[in-house]
Description:
Elements: E1 8-13, E2 18-21, H1 28-31, E3 47-48, E4 57-58, E5 63-69, E6 75-76, E7 81-82, E8 85-88, E9 91-98, E10 102-106, E11 114-120, E12 123-132, E13 136-138, E14 144-147, E15 151-156, E16 164-168, E17 172-175, E18 179-182, E19 211-212, E20 226-232, E21 239-244, E22 247-248, E23 253-254, E24 258-261, E25 269-275, E26 282-288, E27 300-303, E28 309-312, E29 317-321, E30 333-337, E31 341-344, E32 361-370, E33 376-385, E34 388-389, E35 393-396, H2 404-410, E36 418-424, E37 429-434, E38 438-439, E39 442-443, E40 447-451, E41 465-466, E42 470-475, E43 481-485, E44 489-490, E45 493-494, E46 498-501, E47 517-528, E48 534-545, H3 549-555, E49 559-564, E50 567-574, H4 580-596, H5 598-609, H6 614-618
Amino acid sequence: MKHITIYSLMIVCSVFTSLLVTSCNSDLNSNIKDDPYSGGKAPLGIGLLAESPSPESAYPNDTVVFKAKGMLNWCDPQSGRYDFKFYISDEETKIVTATDTTITVKVPGNLSSGTAYIVLKEQVFYGPRLTVLGNIKIDHSYGFKGTSGPIYDCAEHYSKARVYYPVGDYMQAYYNENRSQSFSCISMVLTDGSVSGKWVTDFKLDPGQGAGIDLANPGVTDIECYLNSFTYFPSDHRVLLSGKFSEYGWDKLPVNNITIATNEVASYYKTVALPSKKNNTSINCKIPVFNGGTLEAPVRTFITSNEKVVAVGNITNYCRINTEKSYAESMVLDYSKVASVLRMSRTGELDDNYRRDAEGVVGQILDACMVENDGIVIVGTFSSFDGQPVKNIVKLNAEGTLDETFMKNIGTGANGSITKIRYNKNKKKILITGEFSEFNGIPAQSVVMLNDDGTRDEIFKIGKMEGGLANFACLLDNDNIVVSGAFTKYDGVTRRGFLILGRDGKALQQFNVPGIFQGELYKVIETRTSTNSNGLLLLGDFSRFDSPDKILAYAGMSPSIYQSGQLDNCYAHMEKRGSRYLRYALYNATKYVCHWDESFGTYLAKKRAEGKHYNVAISH
């Protein structure tokens, strides 16, 4: 089932300035735990209040005051005795002092933003969220708010800085306050983050157009449709697009998973006269200038230094429109057997001499990247490639044969599947992620860095992950590493799903202050923020970043506020988008929490006193 989430994020950050990401805030999931008084436990008369701490945001090692109740029954501040423990984001926090109605704590030196709670006699009492400050924050002025499905790739305009083309599996691109544009798998994002409308300079598509499925195409096996690659040809800036699709553009040009578009991403075609089945007349029909493609969707496509097209994937057949056998009403495809990787000219002709008689992969290819000298590193879950036993990773040289030096240097490879690979061409470094614990016999928990000759980078060493593994890693030009995954701790510190590491693999506290990240990244672009600071544009398949509001947005319960100029909160209502099942569960759970918990009940009453409808107030 397709879920509507945020699939891009701009964050402001810097090694010495600040970092930019686009998405969300906190720890709602971790807050939903057992009733502290279940099983007949006696009430202890204490609690943390829901009111914000003072200050609401703090740096590591700062002191923060939380409002509470009934604390002096369980502590003696003068002697330093505290019968309870205090936690922020699941990290035990030093208690400085307490009164009956307050607790003062010292923020740990290594910490991410999260919920505060106290533990007494195995009972847990939750309080408010503390935002931990650092050199990273969301660029709220950037308009692009994501898409209705995953973004797999994104390229910057060849001559216009900060104009982007995200491609993926989506039909809506969101920007600013509840605005959107409808395009199929591709859109254009302008410098301020707004999404371009129809048929404008640099974007010759109308709403609903882009990549699509033509059920009349003989190569179509199902109706799934997506784009996973966008690459410019250096000589004329035409665009190589690939994915799973059988038509493209406003004129629904027939294609087979790969096409070349104009530099305005319009269909690039030629006209041929084809006979009609209905009579003996000829009809002028459009076919792509790039008349080539694949039966199966490629995992990745690349442009070589001499502007040939290489497609990599679980591909068994090359296909091409046969204009000699086709009719105006129906196209006929010719097929040729290929083995996982093929090379074509700019007009789509298959290079018969490339990988002649190769056997291809035994298993599944999951990802690939192009490195120096047109070499291609391929990863996945496979045990053999071109008849040679391998362990989930191979490198082909420019002519499509195995690179023996690389294969020797990687040794035994990965002891589990490799799901993603990213290459920094400026640093000439490869980062791979996957479900492995060793690489070439050396411990490496789901992330390893390689040189482009296959030798292991000796500086980077991934730390210990708990709760899950990494699903993405890339090296930035400033030598920092961005990681996403399902982990909850890194080197013993709570880091929920997102990391920025130093070159040695150590977590950089100043960049690791956000809360929960849920999902996976596919692309990270180094860019500038709306205030011209250093920034990152994060793109992928994620539903939450550093905010509980994202799970509320999925449930369709987030308060929708219309704003105009300096006038805020003119009109608010509860949005009814997203999962009605999750909305129903959260709505009913919240009613009972407000009834039985004094702090939540007080907060609900406060919102009702502000004139909000009950349903709107309870969604806060």
